[in-house]
Design a protein that fits this description.
Layout: E1 4-15, E2 18-30, E3 34-38, H1 45-52, E4 60-63, E5 66-69, E6 72-73, H2 79-85, E7 90-93, H3 107-117, H4 123-136, H5 142-146, H6 155-167, E8 173-177, H7 185-202, E9 205-209, H8 213-219, E10 222-227, E11 230-236, H9 246-253
Parallel strand pairs: 3-9, 3-10, 7-8, 8-9
Antiparallel strand pairs: 1-2, 1-4, 1-5, 5-6, 10-11
Helix pairs in contact: 3-4, 4-6
Length: about 280
């Protein structure tokens, strides 16, 4: 069953020197599976995820032949309809928690706000659910974190709070933008286990945006490789390390290998034809 269908998605920003296309004709479908999106910084990965949630604001604009979520046309949805979808049915873990968490609200207030306003839970029940979510992402002293402000948390702790916040409503689609980049290996494994369980047991769809090609190869089902706003290769994740496109091969060759040669890593030799 197709959960999300995106056809010919374009994200354009109007600048003083003319329009700049950040996403150029991206098409993909997503079922109840884990779809990885990889590529260099600036390749359009995050913009693709934000466009699905219609979070691009002027001077940016979104165009698509179709963008359907569970049969609903997101391009035609009103702002009110999109607000009803965000968080409840479509969640997004932003890349940098410092800019995603409200600096003047405690973590507890931010975690429980949606539960109380959207789901109508009382304070005690909302706090219990928030504490359980923090424990699920391996926060050892959840009560202390509930009472803390974002600036009192480390980057990795803030990232775990963001993941907990997005998992609380158990969305049908989760867009995770570098969700484990600031986490140590042990916590990273726990978070990936949580995401994997939601996909397998609840049938959640997951868009996993990452720079870590080896992690994506292990964790995801399919992979889109993006370069300059376009998808240059799509393949099953288990075959990612055997990719054929020269850009994907270049990304893989830039990765250091334990026991590999000690010389300088090769530079990625780009071709203008890839962006056509």
């Amino acid at each position: 069953m197709t959960l999300l269908d995106v056809r010919n998605l374009r994200v354009t920003f109007d600048t003083e020197t003319g329009p700049v296309e950040a996403v150029r004709g991206v098409s993909f479908s997503l079922g109840r599976e884990r779809l990885g999106i990889v590529g260099e910084s600036g390749s359009g990965k995050t913009m693709t995820g934000r466009a699905v949630l219609r979070l691009i604001r002027p001077p940016g604009r979104i165009e698509a032949d179709a963008m359907l979520f569970d049969g609903q046309d997101l391009m035609r949805a009103s702002d009110r309809e999109m607000r009803a979808l965000r968080g409840k049915r479509i969640g997004m873990v932003m890349q940098d928690p410092k800019y995603s968490l409200n600096p003047v609200m405690t973590v507890g207030d931010q975690l429980t706000e949606g539960l109380r306003r959207r789901d109508g839970l009382g304070r005690r029940d909302a706090e219990a659910k928030a504490l359980a979510a923090l424990e699920a992402v391996q926060i050892r002293d959840p009560q202390r974190v509930m009472e803390a402000f974002p600036h009192e948390l480390s980057g990795g702790m803030g990232q775990r709070v963001m993941i907990a916040m997005m998992l609380i409503p158990e969305p049908d689609l989760l867009i995770a933008d570098e969700p484990t980049s600031a986490l140590d290996v042990t916590v990273q494994a726990e978070v990936l286990s949580i995401l994997d369980r939601l996909v397998r047991e609840r049938g959640m769809g997951l868009i996993f945006i990452s720079h870590d090609l080896r992690l994506v190869a292990r964790f995801c089902d399919r992979v889109l490789v993006m370069y300059k706003g376009k998808v240059v290769e799509e393949l099953e994740a288990r075959h990612l390390l055997e990719a054929k496109h020269p850009y994907t091969r270049g990304l893989l060759d830039c990765l250091p290998r334990i026991g590999g040669p000690r010389g300088p890593l090769p530079a990625l030799d780009r071709s203008g034809a890839w962006a056509q």
